[in-house]
Known about the structure:
Residues 115-213 form the Methyltransferase small domain. The chain has two domains: 3-73; 86-277, Rossmann fold, CATH 3.40.50. Helix content is 40%, strand content 20%. Strands 5-4-3-6-7-9-8 form a seven-stranded mixed sheet, with helices on both faces. It contains ten helices and nine strands.
Amino acid sequence: xxxxxxxxxxxxxxxxxxxxxxxxxxxxxxxxxxxxxxxxxxxxxxxxxxxxxxxxxxxxxxxxxxxxxxxxxxxxxxxxxxxxxxxxxxxxxxxxxxxxxxxxxxxxxxxxxxxxxxxxxxxxxxxxxxxxxxxxxxxxxxxxxxxxxxxxxxxxxxxxxxxxxxxxxxxxxxxxxxxxxxxxxxxxxxxxxxxxxxxxxxxxxxxxxxxxxxxxxxxxxxxxxxxxxxxxxxxxxxxxxxxxxxxxxxxxxxxxxxxxxxxxxxxxxxxxxxxxxxxxxx
Length: 282
């Protein structure tokens, strides 16, 4: 059997169970240890029986047991980097790449290549903070999380990607003891009672659910954040697309002097809130 035949059969099986063909393709490509260019060049090549058995076993775990492909291969791609993931962290999403892009753009616009202190609050796998540190050497990044299991994964990613970041075990600001130029956060924002696909349920509840309306963490953060910000500073949030107005209200309530800018993701959904102080966002 060739890679092409294996992919065709697996894709048919996935469609029958309403699973994503792209996920099946990623699984086959990653297990074959080929980059996309090599994979498509080698589609006509025969696969050996051991590889075929391993792939079908993992395919069935994805299709029949709803185990995310990223858990089966052990990593997820974010901003061009392979981040280790597990059941203890949220799988990085493409919309979060957009948050990183926006933070880098706003840094270039308002901080003028100065060295800045950055905090990634509730870091999970570390994908936001580590990526910022890799992309901009002037950012001195700290990453924090309440979950020690998540921080183990983040630490592995720090070492694997050779990122210069500091790791802090903290329940929000409890163990944070300095002021930052930029605080970025993608806290849990799914409402507690919202129905989830079975595959999403394989990710940690602590990284998914944010209270009855999904906004509890945003109010907690905005209520307590001011002592941890420098005079000219930026807060950057990702949030659910129906939470824009509530989060703006929290910012106006707790940070009356701030400038608020909200932006859409690539699907034109309201996804990001940026809050500036001093000259930032003016």
